[in-house]
Design a protein that fits this description.
By secondary structure, the protein is α/β, with parallel strands linked by helices. The protein folds into two domains: 245 residues, NAD(P)-binding Rossmann-like Domain (Rossmann fold, 3-Layer(aba) Sandwich), CATH 3.40.50.720; 77 residues, TATA-Binding Protein. The chain has 13 helices and 14 strands. The strands form two sheets. It has an eight-stranded mixed β-sheet with strand order 3-2-1-4-5-6-7-8, with helices on both faces. It has a six-stranded antiparallel β-sheet with strand order 9-10-14-13-12-11, covered by helices on one side. A hairpin with a 2-residue loop joins strand 11 and strand 12. The radius of gyration is 20 Å and the shape is globular. 42% of the residues are buried.
Length: 339
């Protein structure tokens, strides 16, 4: 039997998977983009299923508001403001099993997605923003790589397996990202943990089918965990789709992501370095006379300045908490980090 002696015997007895499918799972590689609400559930299920390699990329730290729905994290992770990927690795390692877990504390953009996804057989969406989803869609359609879209707002969610050449891509259904404010978000409408679990379970199941060599028929799955409604809708390719028909990939070809991005429901702004990377040790010494609570944690630096908490990462990216004003966050970054 594949894997440890008895670990997967109930799974292998499921006829559509069987021993052959389990062997394929254990050879398979997944890139999980985001390990918060959706990503945490997906990661647990894939590790417990015995997937061979799980690479996780996430840019954020654990916050107390995550704990109601993000299953990999504990109160101490929020108190310590731990990197989500570090807390995820710790939680997943306790599960055990054959899965090789690889983590990246990074913002996903057109400049690094190719390297992150290079060895992945399938990508799974655990993000909380549309820009990254459209980028992933461009990349996967251009490379012919399957990916599993999932999104949750309030008590409802959507799931779509994008199988390039076999069905709709994200832009077949939603040709362009909506204007800011046009759709409800987790900040304006909230988010319900059972809806997260239901969507993530469907995502993990579709990823398993892809890895096991039994790709699903492309369908858009729509569910409402509060009212108990589920619909399965046809997801046909559009003959005029700008992505999979006309082969236009503007999100993949875009220059480096804009420097400032408001994070959903966090009262925080992510800021990217304009150039270079910081000398964290030197910066810690420089801000010490003017900032409060200056603390290094490995390659991270945290400090409080002007009623804002700043977390700086080794790649020059920072989270500025206590504001949703992009200009304010950029000003603080450029004033105190400057790289």
């Amino acid at each position: 039997m594949p894997g440890s002696t008895r670990r997967f015997e109930r799974q292998v007895r499921f006829a559509p998977l069987g021993a052959a499918g389990q062997e394929r799972l254990e050879r398979g590689s997944v890139l999980l983009v985001g390990c918060g609400a959706l990503g945490g559930v997906v990661a647990q299920l894939l590790v417990r299923s015995g997937v061979g390699r799980l690479a996780i990329v996430d840019r954020d730290v654990v916050d107390e508001t995550n704990l109601a729905r993000q299953v990999l994290f504990e109160e101490r992770h929020a108190r310590e403001r731990a990197l989500k990927v570090d807390a995820a690795r710790e939680a997943l390692a306790r599960i055990g099993g054959p899965t090789r877990i690889e983590t990246h504390a990074a913002h996903v953009g057109p400049e690094n997605l190719g390297e992150l996804a290079r060895d992945a057989d399938v990508l799974v969406d655990g993000t909380d923003n549309l820009a990254t989803r459209y980028l992933v869609n461009d990349y996967c359609v251009e490379r012919g790589r399957p990916w599993i879209y999932g999104g949750v707002v309030g008590g409802a969610g959507l799931v779509l397996a994008v199988l390039p050449g076999a069905g709709a891509c994200l832009r077949c259904l939603f040709p362009d990202p909506p204007a800011p404010g046009a759709l409800p978000t987790c900040e304006t409408a909230g988010v319900l943990a059972p809806a997260v679990g239901a969507v993530a379970a469907l995502q993990a199941g579709l990823a398993q089918r892809v890895l096991a060599g039994d790709p699903p028929k492309p369908r858009l799955l729509e569910l409402d965990a509060w009212n108990g409604n589920v619909r399965s809708l046809a997801a046909e390719r559009r003959a005029d789709c700008p992505c999979c028909a006309r082969r236009e990939f503007p999100f993949l070809a875009a220059p480096r992501s804009r420097r400032a991005l408001v994070l959903c429901g966090r009262n925080a702004v992510q800021v990217l370095a304009a150039r270079g990377t910081p000398d964290v040790e030197a910066l810690a010494r420089a801000v010490a006379p003017v900032a409060k609570s200056v603390r290094r944690a490995g390659d991270m630096l945290r400090f409080e300045i002007d009623e804002h908490r700043v977390t700086l990462f080794a790649d020059g990216r920072a989270l500025v908490e206590g504001t949703e004003d992009e200009g304010r966050a950029l000003a603080l970054y450029d004033r105190y980090v400057g790289c």
